[in-house]
Specification:
This protein is an alpha+beta fold. It has helices at about 15-35, 45-65; strands spanning about 1-5, 10-15. It has a two-stranded antiparallel ribbon. Helix 1 packs antiparallel against helix 2. The longest helix is centred in the last third of the chain and has 23 residues, at about 45-65.
Amino acid sequence: MRVMRARENVFTVEATSQELSALIAGARMSLDVMRSRPDAAPSDAIEMLERVLDDFDRARARLASSDPPSG
């Protein structure tokens, strides 16, 4: 995995499919725990993680519906 800073507060991440899957799985498990114990996490943190995962799901759906790269 490589993480590069594109500019202030913006990063580019290069990850294998397995690495990305592990990160997303960890985020989903964290969200489940945060939802089950709302007193353990601020509501704005829960909302932000929900937005990030929703954005990821939409991006993945767009990628799945586009033509695969050649080569």
